[in-house]
Amino acid sequence: MGTPDPVRRSERARTAVLESTIDLCRADGFARMTIEGIAERAGVSKKTIYRWWSSKGEVLLEALAGRAEIAAAFPDSGDLVRDMCAQTMSVVELLSPQETSPYASLVAEGQRDPALSAAIRTRLVDPFIARFDERMHSAVAARELPASVDLGVAVDLFYGPIYHRLVFGLGLPDGPQLETRVRHVVAALRSGGVPRPPAG
Questions:
Q1: Which residues bind DNA (predicted)?
Q2: Residue 31, burial from CB neighbour count under 10 angstroms (0-12, 13-18, 19+)
């Protein structure tokens, strides 16, 4: 028998840590989850975890990065309303159920940890917004939206209602509710925006 490949063994340990983190966060919640618990479930030492990450928030971010990339996909069928209904639903599914969603826990923890918040912005939010902008540019090219559309306003209008309801515990929107909101947003963007007040 040959000597075990340390790279392969290290990757197995890393995968076990990430999967254990998601499982524990979903089962116990972020607040009760500990590095000790993750290490025990993954069958590794705490030292192994701290060699790769400095906090349980960083571990959770790493664990969710791949799943968040899937939710960040933007379909482009030529029907903006249908595509954005599908896209926003994928975000809602990532956050559901709110009480046990690891992603919702990560969002909440980011509000308390400035370093984690910055990492979330770099790893998840900025790439998501870049893909959103690409989809909106495609909609402009297809004449589904005017060239004057404000992309910053657009991303806030599409996703603000989701995170508003998440933060205040109002219940995440279901399919019909999302469609209503998406149709309102698209109609508003197609109208060319809010008229500027008269000068003076």
A1: 34-53
A2: exposed
Instruction: Please check the confidence at residue 173 and state whether its pLDDT lies above 50.
Output: yes
Contact status, residue 60 vs residue 52, Cβ threshold 8 Å: no
Phi-psi region of 171 (alpha: psi -120 to 50; beta: other; left: phi over 0): left
Domain ranges (residues) in the chain: 6-52, 80-191
Output b/e per residue, 110-123; b: 16+ Cβ within 10 A: beeeeebbebbeeb
The architecture (CATH level 2) of 6-52 comes to Orthogonal Bundle (1.10)
Q: What share of the chain is helix, strand, coil (3-state, %, to 5)?
A: 70, 0, 30
Is the pLDDT score of 57 beyond 80?
Answer: yes
Please give the Cα distance from 29 to 32 (Å, whole number): 6
Task: Give the architecture (CATH level 2) of 80-191.
Answer: Orthogonal Bundle (1.10)
